[in-house]
Design a protein that fits this description.
With about 400 residues, this protein is an alpha/beta fold. About 40% of the residues lie in helices and about 10% in strands. It has 14 helices and 13 strands. The strands form three sheets. An eight-stranded parallel β-sheet has the order 4-11-10-9-8-7-6-5. It has a three-stranded antiparallel β-sheet with strand order 1-12-13. It has a two-stranded antiparallel ribbon with strand order 2-3. Helix 12 crosses helix 13. The longest helix is centred in the C-terminal third of the chain and has 32 residues. The radius of gyration is 21 Å and the shape is globular. The relative contact order is 0.18.
Length: about 400
Amino acid sequence: MTALAPQPAEAPVCLADVRRAAEAVLPRHVLDFVEGGSGAETTLAANRAAFDAVTLLPRVLAGVSTVDSAGALLGTSTAMPVAIAPMAYQRLLHPDGELATARAAKRAGIPFVISTLSSCTFADIAATGASTWFQLYWLRDRAGVIELLGAADEAGCLAVVLTADVPVMGRRRRDMRNQFALPPDVPAVNLRHPGGQAPTEAHRAASGASAVATHTNLAFEPGLTWRDVEWLRRRTHLPLVIKGVLDPRDARHAADCGANAVVVSNHGGRQFDGAPASIAALPAVVDAVSGDCEVLLDSGVRGGTDVLRSLAFGASGVLVGRPVLWGLAAGGEQGVAQVLSLLQAELLEAMTLAGCRDLAAAAGLTAAPRAGQMSTGQMSTGQMSTGQMSTGRSAS
């Protein structure tokens, strides 16, 4: 009997397919580091459940023969209202790490947010030509903060994104059980001790502990306040984004402190376990800032319809995290490019089916929770009861 020729791997048709490809190649402890949340992972699960509970009312007979997803985020032109979220230590997933991700972002025409804990240098990432923003974890050593800001500015970063929801790292039980530690060749290369050596705490495994948590809890300033935000606003000429906002009062305060944007985020379910889903918190934050700053969203975005849901609830755009890491693990730069291409294709199709020719029309869609699936007021502007409609600010 003639043997059958091997068949080429099937191309992914959705982001879940990319996740399965990543699962096939990643060691279990690395997959847990990427996928895990804090505590009992209730907020991690809530992110997806909340997105699934949002319905959009499509418009018909809208004469939509062409669809355009292009726009701008913080003055950066984008092919779609998406940026790549800041994620640490990407060389864990692929030898090219952040360089592969940045190159894919450039190809896709979207911003790439460089993490403070990047495993590639600012200069090397800048050399890819990607549009970059810099995500800042506030260090206990303010001189280190100043050094990072200067390096980001020199590298041509177009915005500073202050992550505000990590006074300490949440207890990530998967990492603790795995005694997770970074391999020696994956340091946070942009952080240095006074002696010039890369930090090593993240590489020392300990029983029942995450070495990454040990390192970040030693390095990060837990007592950050709004006074520090005001100092940062004076220190940088770049657009300032506050990431990790869920309470509308904090969003209003951020706008009053001169922030150009807030990111409604629960850190992908990796910090306070018990926080609401980001999409559930979004409408109240949009109301609170009253157009005085942009509102972005992350945590739980898994497809183009999720991007459209976020726009209908008032977001300017979204940050995408874990799916990018799945693509990086599965195929390096090409894998990330595939994720972003799938995301844009799904968004364009969703906009077409919903009768939206552009992002302004998407913002005018009517969105609502599925009856009985969301608690009162969570998902809708104006604190409406479950099942009532939330209508966008412009007609479609």
